[in-house]
Structure of Redox-sensitive transcriptional activator SoxR:
Amino acid sequence: MTVSWQARELTVGDLAERSGVPSSALRFYERQGLIRSRRTSGNQRRFSRDTLRRVAFIRVAQRVGIPLSRVKDVLALLPEERTPNREDWARVSAWWRDDLTDRIEHLQRLRDNLTECIGCGCLSIDRCALANPCDSLGDEGPGARRLLSP
Amino acid sequence: MTVSWQARELTVGDLAERSGVPSSALRFYERQGLIRSRRTSGNQRRFSRDTLRRVAFIRVAQRVGIPLSRVKDVLALLPEERTPNREDWARVSAWWRDDLTDRIEHLQRLRDNLTECIGCGCLSIDRCALANPCDSLGDEGPGARRLLSP
DNA sequence: ACCATACTTCAACAATGGTTCAGGTCCGCT
DNA sequence: AGCGGACCTGAACCATTGTTGAAGTATGGT
């Protein structure tokens, strides 16, 4: 019957249990500026409930291979003042779905190329589409100069 | 007119230039057992030409996010004795294309779920399909226990 | 034979995404 | 008031995937 009922804030342990993310990772996210908390008089973290959504968002992004730095940038698009609402989340999620679509298309192109390459048994470096994704080939003498750009 | 013509072996610099992968990375790959070289009497590396394919294979795999340890396992399926032929490469590439297909399907499921979630504005942690990908929900009281397994 | 260039090793450092531990403090229940 | 469990910080450590630099050696062309 203490203040714990007040706004139903979450301790780091609560958040860890509900999200399945270890407390150590949550502290790390806070250090990185992905989530925030207020502190009690005794210096303990208290998270507002919408942090649960932020953490869900972070983990979903991570499953897709998006680095935390980028996740942070996207989360920064949420309003600071008020608790993000349904529409706010829809907005950032959409941004993010586009990213996912790009990744899927990229992988599909890669797979299609690979299927061709299996057909010809190549991976031939000099001619293979897979190995020369940037089409930066054919204007500087024989042989490829680069396999891959990244 | 020295021995350099012999079998057209590549120095680490040659390989770096032709593959677009820095020498430092190539040495690293060798340390990790992903590629091999013989040594000259002066202890310098000489790579056989098929190493170019191996490196191409490694970089393509990396673009998809496959860790080197796994790439190593797949490359280990190539014959040690002889130079891998067309069919050998087709075999390992196929193995690998399946992996790609799985990843694509996974991402598509993720995106479909996300699209639904944008529809409902949720990412609601307790009910959202995205946040509960393992369907391990609904048999232990209210509220999700885990957001994500990996 | 000489010299520039490329090569060698080893160690240290970098970024990402955390975990673990030590030493100490706080919270809430009885 | 006391106690156990949860929380705090900071530093050290882990794996992955390399890069950079120092100090020394080899190779190949003139």
